[in-house]
Specification:
Number of strands: 0
Shape: elongated
Mean pLDDT: 76
Structural class: mainly alpha
Strand content: under 5%
Number of domains: 3
Largest sheet: none
CATH architecture of the largest domain: Up-down Bundle
Distance between the termini: 59 Å
């Protein structure tokens, strides 16, 4: 964003905040009357008046989240979405103040936005993790003698874990995330070298040499398996092909009926055939100095 665009955005935000502060406060009965007109009659003018009157509430809540480094205008926009959601769900028959009901929706909408955008890494998904994310700084500041810039000691970690009902390891993990922030993998490790962090990341994928060797070994084992199956008698070959090499596994009972034997006899012949194949494969692998693998 250019410097001119940034100034224009700031002026627009200030203008919106100023106009929000000028909106008149609503009396309880008038507030409920507007809510009834919108809910029962779909009166959009009533909705607009109700929402406009509480944009100052959005500004107030959004301002409390500025420390997370996100644009105030975006925070206010998300808060307005929460305000509209509150207006859509508010039930005037309960006779609660709309401001009390809307506060929860506004804060929830802003918090969701902060969690989605504060870091490229997903920060918190459970209710406990969200509570930890939004309360960690405040609780750190309350711990006597604990400077915010320092790491929490074990007592401090335990105190926060007890306060929020989370595990100590979750407090440590969140503290590390919030204090470190995001860093590009293309950043150099030090100013004295051109090596980047990404250069030292270990890849889980096999290297090209391993891939080629694996393909060669796989082709070799496939040939050995084919040879081993070919050494079986016709009935054993039928059982192995139907039970182990086909897309759909044929049951012992079905094969027994086809071969005119009991299903228990089919199971015995299958095991004997597998032993023959395994012995043949292991012998060839031993000669080739290769590691053994599962046949099927």
């Amino acid at each position: 964003m250019s410097h001119i665009d940034d100034n224009q955005t700031q002026r627009a935000n200030l203008k919106y905040i100023g106009s929000s502060m000028k909106e008149p406060l609503l009396e309880r009965e008038h507030e409920l009357d507007l809510a009834r007109k919108w809910r029962e009659k779909g009166d959009e003018r009533a909705l607009h008046e109700l929402v406009r009157s509480y944009t100052r509430l959005v500004v107030s809540i959004a301002s409390k989240f500025k420390s997370y480094g996100l644009p105030l205008g975006d925070l206010i926009q998300e808060g307005n979405i929460g305000l509209m959601e509150a207006a859509a769900r508010f039930e005037p028959a309960r006779e609660n103040r709309f401001s009390t009901y809307a506060t929860w929706w506004i804060r929830a909408s802003i918090q969701d936005y902060v969690l989605r955008n504060w870091s490229i890494v997903r920060t918190g998904t459970t209710a406990a993790q969200k509570s930890l994310f939004f309360n960690l700084r405040r609780l750190r500041a309350q711990i006597e003698g604990q400077a915010v810039k320092d790491n929490l000691d074990e007592d401090g970690i335990q105190q926060i874990a007890n306060e929020l009902g989370v595990k100590k390891k979750e407090v440590r993990k969140m503290e590390m995330r919030m204090m470190s922030g995001d860093q590009s993998l293309n950043n150099t490790i030090t100013g004295e070298t051109e090596n980047e962090w990404i250069d030292f990341l270990e890849a889980d994928d096999p290297n090209p040499e391993d891939i080629v060797v694996g393909m060669r070994n796989s082709d070799t084992r496939s040939k050995w398996l084919s040879d081993a199956v070919g050494q079986l008698n016709p009935r054993e070959q039928t059982i192995i092909k139907e039970r182990r090499l086909g897309e759909d596994v044929v049951t012992l009972e079905t094969l027994g009926k086809e071969l005119g034997i009991s299903k228990e006899r089919v199971r015995q012949l299958e095991q004997r055939a597998l032993d023959k194949i395994r012995d043949s494969m292991l012998a060839k692998m031993k000669d080739a100095n290769m590691d053994s693998v599962s046949l099927f």
